[in-house]
Sequence to fold (1323 residues):
Amino acid sequence: MTLLKDKIVSSSLYVPVQATIRDIRALTPLEKVFSLTLPDGMLLNHEPGQFVELSVFGVGEAPISITSSPSRSNGFFELCVRNAGDMTGVLHQMKPGDVVGVRGPFGRPFPMNRFLGKDLIFAIGGLGLAPARSVINQVLDERGKYGKVIILYGARTPGDLLFTDELEEWDRRSDVELHLTVDRPAEGWDGNVGVITTLFSHVQVYARNTVAITLGPPVMYRFVLMELLGKGVPEGNIWFSFERRMKCGVGKCGHCQIHHLYTCKDGPTFSFAEIKHLEGAL
Amino acid sequence: MGFRVMPKSAFPGWVEQMLQTYRVVGPRKIRDRYMFDEVNSPGDLDLTYSTTVLPPKKVLLPQHEELLSFDLESGKMEAAIDTQPTVLLGVHTCDLHAIRLLDAVFEDGYADQHYIARRQNVLLVSLECLSPCTEKSFCKSMGTLSVTEGYDLHLTDLGDSYAIDIGSERGQALLELTENAQPATDADYSRLNQTLSDKWPRFPYRLESDITELANLLAVSYDSDLWEELGEKCLGCGSCTIVCPTCYCFNVIDEVDFSLNAGSRIRQWDGCTLSQFAVVAGGHNFRSTNQERQRHRFFRKGKYQMEAYGLVGCVGCGRCAEACLVDINPVDTFNELSRRRIPMTRRHKEVLP
Amino acid sequence: MTQQKPKIAFFDFASCEGCQLTVIDSLQTNLELLNAVEIVNFREAMSEKGQDYQIAFIEGSCSRKSDEARLQAIREQADIVVALGACAHLGGVNAVRNRQPLEDVRTYVYGNKADWYETYPARPISQVITVDATIPGCPIDRDEFIASVKMLLQGRIPKLPETPLCVECKLLENQCVYTMGKVCLGPIVRAGCKAICPSFGDGCEGCRGLVSEPNMESLKQVMAEHGMADQDISHKLDLFLTYQMMNLENEEPK
Amino acid sequence: MTGTTLTPDIAIDVHHITRVEGHGNIVVDVEKGELKRCELQIVEAPRFFEAMLRGRPYGQASHLTSRICGICAVGHATTSLRATETALGVELSEQTILLRKLNFYGEILDSHILHVYMLVAPDFLGVGSVIPLATSAPDVVLRALRMKKLSGDICAVIAGRHTHPIAMTVGGFTHFPTMEKLEQLRERLEAVRADVDETVALFQTLQIPDFERETEHIALHKPDEYAFIDGVIKSTDSGEWPLDRYLEVTNEYMVPHSTAKRARNQREAYAVGAMARVNVNYDLLHPKAKEAAVALGLKPVCHNPYMISVAQVVEIVHAIEDSIVLTDALLKRGVEWEEPAPPARLSGEGVGSCEVPRGILFHHYKIEDGLIVGANGVIPTTQNLQNAEEDMRALVPTILDRSQEEITLALEMLVRAYDPCISCSTHLLDVRFE
Ligand SMILES: Cc1cc2nc3c(=O)[nH]c(=O)nc-3n(C[C@H](O)[C@H](O)[C@H](O)COP(=O)(O)OP(=O)(O)OC[C@H]3O[C@@H](n4cnc5c(N)ncnc54)[C@H](O)[C@@H]3O)c2cc1C
Ligand code: SF4
Ligand code: SF4
Ligand code: SF4
Fold:
């Protein structure tokens, strides 16, 4: 049983293994879920919050969060990818059976054992659901180990909501509190309209025992943070996953540097306590 | 390990010997500038060089480097690991310090096999600087004017001969290629000591504060007005980061042949002073102005690298100052920050409103 | 990723045709190009004039009202339009005359026969039709052309490099031409030509166009410090960059 | 369809002649067997180079004017430099002269190889372009590309690149080739001789149409070398003129159907180019080139315009051989970095002239205090246009028995033989010295 990570550590950090696309599911016109298998039964062995460096050979490579949770790895893993540029654009034209490159898993995962017994509040914007889904499903698969689970999720329009089947599933559960919002409603939308922070008034938290996991576009973070701090959630319990430009994923290329930290290896998950003194981090 | 002495007349012969087994890279004069370049005969070398345009890091981390080649048709994928035995000759002490930082970066965490393979196959023959190489160098201020480790061999020019310090067994073996390196006599010791003590006063201190204070100075200078002033002047040309021996940021691109199925992945130098360095998909730029980029650059040099690797991020070679058309340079920047030092209390506002 | 060979076509407007010549020259080292694409229209090099193409490469500036219809027809046919070279990309040297009153330019050249020949201020083709990609330069760089074709074959749109020329120049360890008493537009111009002018001892003239955030004021200051009078500075900037400079200065062609 | 029917009415309208540089049309109207209209229309957009030169520093002129034409970029740059240098009294070093000549051959070769192999040969081989030849006659195409690469590399080594050379400047160069580079060129030049022989052999097999029209040929001439840069103007009719009297030769005029000017000297038209050069300077050709001329049946004075391509092949031989001579001279004396020769004055007037691939080219500048205040240029194609049209006029009545397609092809081949450089020809550099 080889681990992908052992493979790259033993040969070259930059040589991906050739993974096969086993399935592609379009969520929206811009986002697709790619289900990948590694060769020779190799294992990815990731933890929630980590990412892989995904390549289309001849085009390029980009960091992509692993959206499937470790608790649901049945010989494959999933990536939810937005068509945002070169590599992702060509990836979106690919078909099952095609080969892509994968390196990883990289990055510091969420410290799940520090979350045990805590109430969890997820504040998610847009594509942030991709990494969040990995944490959420992991938590739901071990539901007993955590307190309340509150999920706040915002998208631009109802059509931009990702993983709607799973959203419905979570909504049906009595042990999950799900609140959705959109910036711009569409025909038939009877839910909340407004930015994600407008959802906070709908939820009650026991601040001292709450862990907040915030995932979304950079602009969202400051506002969510103000809400959470305002509710009294401790600084060390407020977690983010940061996005930065990355070329290597292993703390060499310098692109993702935030002060002395490298987002790819010291993060991408950070607690507010860790980064609050770092100007420009948020 | 002590040192040996080799008459200068024997030096070319020694280089000839090296050329039998090694690729030799050293400073060459090309028109009005010096470059580290492959040496084909001892005459190509010019050890009296001032400073080179690019630092010797290019031997360990080439400007344009194949990381891997692939062929999807056959499924072949190969790491390009370069293990060519190389002597890197005539490295100034500041650059030697810079290589130590590069070593730390590329060995840290996941070790970068490409860098390390090169590094392990490179013999470093450094050279004691006896007078400032340019008006813009400030190695003495940065504590890089001398070295005690990190080399395989270290040369000091004693006039008609070289004193050669042996820093490793590999260095020793390299020296054994010649029979003309004799054990040092007492006279040689005193000549070397004299040379070293004579050289010291020739170098000015150019920084007005001590390097141990740099990190603190920067910590309180994040909001200094100076960044705005530098930002206005800075052309964003990126030269300063490209020529820096301690910069190692890179970009990775793919090249393909017309089959679109085979090609290679290339690593090439990048720099944090370039406008697109921190742009992410969707167009957000985490450092969108020259001002922020200059600040980041100097923080890396004076603070971040120290915090991350325990080594100073600027070795005072002065290349960036030579390269900058608008005369933005570490000495003036750090000195000006020091003059404008912002009291801690004023700075101690929250990061968030 | 096997797909049908895309049909490509080359067209030219006011230009020296040096970019198309460079395309022909690129075959010297990339003859495989002919297997990867089907060239259906290339007046400079072939007789066939196919009108069924997906990718159109257009060389030259638009300098006559009557050229607009030809451009539009190409746009309608092509899925992807690529501006080839500085004339198409920036107006190129053709735009130098935009600083001078049009009537004066015409009569200076044609005397009393001025109205025999139609013209208007030279402009980049992007001012007339939507352009999907640009291969900059005067002339274009062969390798960049080949790399761009490969990107198009991969289904990507080549992007203009954002890196300033200085980076490329430094990577080659050139001696900065400013130290040789000359001036250079390298700090504000897009890289990609292998800094060929500084490599051959001459300052960059800006044929690949301005980077997206050029610090014009600071560079003008640098040039002034290197002994250039205001007029010399404008001459330097107004060779390939006239159109962009006039835009920056909000100046209309006369 | 073969030309059996005698068509009394013929209307030929070739819109945008292909495989030439720039946009031109051929319009021929024959009514009841009588030629009513026969025009070579140049419809290229005018580019106004001389207006653009006004007020510019003289140092920019060669870089700006090289953009007149991507194929004769070195020719325009060299001619521009010669005009400026004459105006400002710049004396060139021997090294500069040698390097300029070698660089110039790079372009002559590049252009001639492009023309004979890629633009003309397809007509004789019955294809529409060189592209199908890549599969049907790959050796021919590869040979052409190989020869072309060497030509381009000559320019690249000396001036950075062929299309828009960089290192050429007023008074000299800004960059110099290393001895290694020159030695490599020397080796390749020698090796390419085999390809040159093959080229001559190929042209021996081609059926060149038999058509003659007595023509005045004009070219630069020097007593001791086959002239490409500088010299005097010489006509096959009679007469020699110094460069500064070029206007007496060119006598430019305009016609409404063409954005390019025309020229005439002692007859209704005259011709310039490879054929004119061979006709004027045959004795000065390299012996090997003369051998090739004999082998190809080219004898001065030749009046068959279709033989222009053959004259180009002869010049390819000459250019390769003389490049070897020049490279040897450079290798022998060595190449030093030298500062460009300084101007003796900053105001003056001067004419520069070169034999660019398509014929004699003139640049004429007036400079005041370092700025160009007046510019004129006369381009080879300008000088050839009327002659090509006269040839068409003479040719059409002799081939009226052919089919329309065949007539069209014959006319296109005729125009192509002149290797017209249409984008150059539209610059109409007017004489306007205030
Ligand atoms: C830790 C982490 C996790 C991520 N997880 C996901 C995920 O789960 N799903 C997902 O879809 N995305 C994710 N992303 C974002 C993803 O990495 C980017 O969308 C991806 O890099 C786009 O790659 P590309 O090659 O398609 O785009 P590129 O072609 O690289 O372009 C992306 C953008 O970068 C800029 N850019 C790129 N190159 C240049 C250049 N040379 N000059 C100027 N601008 C340039 C442009 O603004 C462009 O819009 C994640 C990012 C990080 C850091
Ligand atoms: S920052 Fe400048 S002086 Fe310091 S090491 Fe880099 S190049 Fe040298
Ligand atoms: S070299 Fe100078 S101008 Fe260029 S990016 Fe660096 S600081 Fe700015
Ligand atoms: S150096 Fe400048 S002028 Fe020269 S080719 Fe490059 S971009 Fe164009």
